[in-house]
Amino acid sequence: MRVSGWREADGRTAEGERSSGLGRAREAECDLAIREAEASWVRSSLEELTTGSFPGLAMWRAWRESGRMPPEAGELAERDLKTD
Fold first, then answer.
1. How do the pLDDT tens digits run along the chain, 84 residues long?
2. What span, in angstroms and rounded, lies between the C-alpha atoms of 47 and 53?
3. What is the pTM of this model?
4. HEC states along the chain?
5. If you compute the radius of gyration of the chain from its CA atoms, what whole number of angstroms results?
6. For residue 35, which of 43, 25, 45 has the smallest C-alpha distance?
7. Is residue 48 within 8 Å of residue 54, measured between CB atoms?
């Protein structure tokens, strides 16, 4: 199916929307929604990192401080290799 030939239920075409500016308005609305979702994800990730509630954070901190891989990290890596 060609994108330029699609019709919505109300009969508008993609070309008609583009020429009237509706397509650009929809695209801008979609871009804004994506940016808002990304910003929300970044804020929640930052909060988890700041509060220490990020999953596996303690393991990564211990690894960084000691320079040795924690046993649970090795187990996760082995488990991941078996699923490939």
1. 344 444 444 555 555 555 566 778 888 999 999 999 999 999 999 999 999 999 989 888 888 999 888 887 777 777 777 765
2. 8
3. 0.51
4. CCHHHCECCCCCEHHHHHHHCHHHHHHHHHHHHHHHHHHHHHHHHHHHHHHCCCCCHHHHHHHHHHCCCCHHHHHHHHHHHHHC
5. 24
6. 43
7. yes
* Residue 83: both structure tokens together: 């699923």
Q: b or e along 18-39 (b: 16 or more beta carbons within 10 Å of the residue's beta carbon)?
A: eeeeeeeeeeeeeeeeeeeeee
